[in-house]
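Please complete every field before forwarding. Incomplete forms are returned to the sender.

SECTION A: IDENTIFIERS
Entry label: holo-469
Bound molecule: flavin-adenine dinucleotide
Molecule representation: SMILES string

SECTION B: INPUTS
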Amino acid sequence: MAKDPVCGKDIDEEEARQQTGQTRFGAAEVDPQKGTRRFHNGTWFYFCGLECRSKFMASPDSFIGAGSS
Amino acid sequence: MDFAFTPEQEQLRQEVRDFIAENVTDSVRAEVEDAMDEGHGEEYMKLRAKIAERGWIGISFPKEYGGQDGSRIDQYIVEEELARVGVNVGLSGSGGPAILAAGTEEQKQYFIPRLIRGEVTFALGFTEPQAGADLAGLQTRAVRDGDDYIINGQKMYTSSAHYATHIYMMARTDPDAPKHKGISIFLFPMDTPGVTVRPLWTIQNDPPAPMGTTYGMGRTNETFFEDVRVPASSMLGEENMGWYVGAMGLNLDRVGASRYLISVRRDEDIVNWVKENEFDGHSPSEDPEVRDRIAEMWIEAQVCRLMTLRSMSIVEHGGNFTYEGSAEKVWAPEHGVRTTEGISQILGPYAQLLNGSIGAVEDGVFAHNLMGSFQSGINHGSVQVMRDQVARRGLGMPRG
Ligand SMILES: Cc1cc2nc3c(=O)[nH]c(=O)nc-3n(C[C@H](O)[C@H](O)[C@H](O)COP(=O)(O)OP(=O)(O)OC[C@H]3O[C@@H](n4cnc5c(N)ncnc54)[C@H](O)[C@@H]3O)c2cc1C
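SECTION C: PREDICTED COMPLEX
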């Protein structure tokens, strides 16, 4: 389990990554409604949704330390 | 300096027009234009094979890689005619020119013939959530592990990732180097384990853009790379030289008829529309204000075409292609915006009606183009970034 570094919610990484389809040439597709993630300074962070991700991206340093990857 | 085409070139243009009249039916066009969102279908591949049989794809590429060793101007003529009906056979925008310039022999042998045959298509994985105009700030990492690299990171607006066979992407290979100097380019299949695609829907998604919309892209994507293992041989150019290879590739990718035509097909459409329609017994083409406005747009469109031909000519003669592609990438999209706005003034409120609405002109194509025209000023290098390149490369100003 990861923590959303913005709101602190528990995030199931597997669910955020869960494959819901496949592109025409075989890449996994995921559901845009599910939680999302962001690769920042060499680490993956997970979010409950786009709102938290956008807040994080606007000011990552103010959230790092509050959550885990 | 000779602006005229030779009799042979005029003959080639006529041959392409005859071919189109015979082979590009409305059903083929509909499928070809759907390809913008769904990739190539069967009809398109058949048409493409017929075009390839005539030796019209990759004309300027070397014969040893499936091209014709022909002239870029011939290629331009074929591209211009086919792009007008929505069929893009130019390999500008394909990644081909960069592979030819910087690829290993193995990469050239593998990719170029397949790009020409349409069996390989690349999604461009450059932009990231916080690296767009400032692309060199990208965070995706590629770490060497024996004969492989392991890639982690995220890309935004990977437009054709949902139907491309391969990705052409940038990753940081040296996080300690100055930001332009630690980047490399990788080419690998989309079905490599660890690649995940997630849709992003654009303003053209609903209702879907009708046939003839030049910027009808309804879907782009976010693409995630999580512990994606690729062989070191998938690197294009030398390690940490990706910034320069990528910039050169983007610059070469801008040379071609299709980019110019994206912006000026609308001018051609409105000219046809005003000539073909009558209201209360009068054609809009008789109205002095309409004529004046359209003539003005048309003059601008010719500037786009001349800029494109100049770029083609410089590359054809092996000249130093520095700021010209960037200048074109400012003029053409901004002309496209001015044109769609002008058309919307000519058509009045009907110009606002989208596909499927009662009263929409030509299924809403002008309205969809009005929305879409703004995309072209952002993607493939925004107009602000392009102006900066003109200032630096064309006018010798320092980096801003
Ligand atoms: C429909 C669409 C399709 C795309 N397809 C692809 C694709 O297939 N692959 C890919 O890699 N990318 C793609 N892109 C991404 C595109 O290249 C970027 O959107 C573009 O580079 C701008 O980056 P950004 O969106 O992060 O904007 P930002 O970098 O946040 O810039 C926002 C605005 O500010 C301007 N600006 C930024 N810095 C400066 C400055 N220093 N001086 C003056 N103005 C500045 C920019 O020009 C822009 O207008 C696509 C974009 C769109 C809209």
